[in-house]
Amino acid sequence: MAKLSIRSVSKSYGALTVLDDVSVEVEEGSFVVLLGPSGCGKSTLLHAVAGLNPIDSGTIVIGDRNVTNLPARERDVAMVFQSYALYPTMTVAQNIAFPLKMRGLDRKMSDEKVAGVARLLQIEPLMSRLPRELSGGQRQRVAIGRALVRDPRLFLFDEPLSNLDAALRTELRAEIKRLHQSIRRTMVYVTHDQTEALTLADKIVVLKAGRIEQTGTPLSLYDDPDNAFVAGFIGTPR
Ligand code: ADP
Ligand code: MG
């Protein structure tokens, strides 16, 4: 059974159709990348899964629960955004612990979980710093830590690396891959960057103007694109 099923989801803003009958199956523990140019509807689709934005029609199933009409807090997903949105007056440790505090977890349990996340992301030396004392890459690691500590059944990433310079992007990309290989949680990752898609994905969904152009493994899209758009976007000459 798929961990996440997006079934025939459509959404319009007035006359603009942003998602047009989009269906995606995400297997348990897999890494799926939604790839497409700016404005094609990637964030809208991810927000629909997270429950941050209502859809006009279609169904979203996470695990065995139809979550289409559930509010975000009942969906058990964690999202990492492009901008890091850390609390500026809290230390790294307090930022990561915040979702646990909100859930009323006791201090000892919380400290243990935060320490585990810090170890996994190799940010132990940063724990008492404030966000303004961190580099962009370190901030994004903390944002990932804050998602991880909740131990959600589904991780959603919306262009998490696009504010970083090229060298940091490569480094954090490798780290996200390592993270997925070590925890094997279901992850859905949005990007317009072909290299990110090809290196991270088990499966890539190529979107254009709110419609799916092609779905497949990185290799199958690269070797056997269905059309000129996919070929051009993935970067193979035809
Ligand atoms: P992407 O993440 O792929 O860049 P988005 O999902 O953010 O694309 O946006 C898809 C389209 O929907 C764009 O044309 C965008 O301008 C439009 N859009 C997004 N949010 C709104 C909104 N709240 N109201 C009107 N149009 C929107
Ligand atoms: Mg977007």
Stretches with pLDDT under 50, minimum 5 residues: none
Present as ligands are:
adenosine-5'-diphosphate, magnesium ion
**E-strand count:** 10
Strand arrangement in the largest pleated sheet: 6-7-8-3-9-10
What string gives the helices and strands in order?
EEEHEEEHHHEHEHEEHH
Main sheet characteristics = 6 strands, mixed
Q: How large is the count of helical segments?
A: 8
Which oligomeric form is depicted? single chain
**Helix proportion:** 25-40%
- Return the structural class: alpha/beta
Mean pLDDT over the residues: 93
Cα-atom Rg, whole angstroms? 18 Å
Task: For the record, give the distance between the C-alpha atoms at the N and C termini, rounded to a whole number.
Answer: 36 Å
List key phrases describing it.
238 residues, alpha/beta, six-stranded mixed beta sheet, four-stranded antiparallel beta sheet, 8 helices, binds adenosine-5'-diphosphate, binds magnesium ion
Summarize the entry for a quick read.
With 238 residues, the chain is an alpha/beta fold. The protein has helices at 42-50, 92-102, 107-121, 136-148, 166-183, 194-200, 218-223, 228-234; strands at residues 2-13, 16-27, 31-35, 57-62, 65-66, 77-80, 154-158, 186-191, 203-208, 211-216.
Structure overview:
The chain is an alpha/beta fold and 238 residues long. It is 36% helix and 27% strand. It has eight helices and ten strands. The protein has helices spanning 42-50, 92-102, 107-121, 136-148, 166-183, 194-200, 218-223, 228-234, and strands at residues 2-13, 16-27, 31-35, 57-62, 65-66, 77-80, 154-158, 186-191, 203-208, 211-216. Strands 6-7-8-3-9-10 form a six-stranded mixed sheet, with helices on both faces. Strands 2-1-4-5 form a four-stranded antiparallel sheet, covered by helices on one side. Strand 1 and strand 2 (16-27) form a beta hairpin. The radius of gyration is 18 Å and the shape is globular. The two termini are 36 Å apart. The model has no long low-confidence stretch (mean pLDDT 93). Residues 13, 18, 36, 38-44 line the site of adenosine-5'-diphosphate.
